[in-house]
């Protein structure tokens, strides 16, 4: 055993080695790109068109008509690399995602993007104006750099507890080339921070918060859910995103809030309308006997319509039922 081994315990030597490796890794960070590094020779300019397809024909259940009517918030888009996430299915919502999904407020999202730019993991943030109806278009122009080839975006569903549609980390650079055109169908997501079931549910915080999850035709499996369509295997797209690469990057500065309205460029929907079956309440209790108890008397019970049918859905059943009186439910006159 050498004199140095006598003075320094072996566990302490291992600790020094670990600390040395950590200091070197922080001084010279590894380029952990997971194969997502873009080797394109220059930036790419895209036009982005968001198309809302939230119509009463496609989504007739509890479709919001008043206070407020169905509409879309402003679109928030961020260009970034693999070390940044605006949002992620299966992960907890950040404070910025929570405030945007619940209230449509972008302050915390902007702060997060600015912090990402400081750390060189975010390129730029873009926003479009909101859409005052469930069906409509908004657009903006994007410039992506090879060091930030990914795109993430969010649009809040209004009204809703904490629901949104979005894109998570779409890589627009593949095999060293910018993609020419991309079209994506968008489905609703639950931010996991509010427990409301319907579009107009009051604020009811989820405690503890849950992970971000996709809303499906039978998930949550509850008839009160505004997107609950048990006859469907999957929901129709609530919106679409269309991205088209421009012939060359223009020299002029891009307008972050653009007025491009290009409905002919949106992807044609394969869906026409969604059938909505009638829903009725439970039967009431039987009423008292009307008429003579011995013979010919009848009693009634009723139920009411919870949800009217639409788009050739199953019609409502009878709302009133009668039955012959029996002695035990007859009134005895004194």
From TrEMBL:
GO molecular function: metal ion binding
InterPro entries attached to this UniProt entry: Spondin/Thrombospondin_T1, Spondin_N, Spondin_N_sf, TSP1_rpt, TSP1_rpt_sf, TSP1_spondin_dom
Localization (cell): Secreted, Extracellular space, Extracellular matrix
Pfam families assigned to the protein according to its UniProt record, in alphabetical order: Spond_N, TSP1_spondin
Domain of life: Eukaryota
A biological process from GO: cell adhesion
Ranges where the Spondin domain occurs: 34-223
Main location: secreted
Span of the signal peptide: 1-27
Keyword Signal: yes
SUPFAM superfamilies tied to this protein: TSP-1 type 1 repeat (SSF82895)
Record key words, sorted: Cell adhesion, Disulfide bond, Extracellular matrix, Glycoprotein, Metal-binding, Secreted, Signal
Name of this chain's protein: Spondin domain-containing protein
Originating organism: Silurus meridionalis
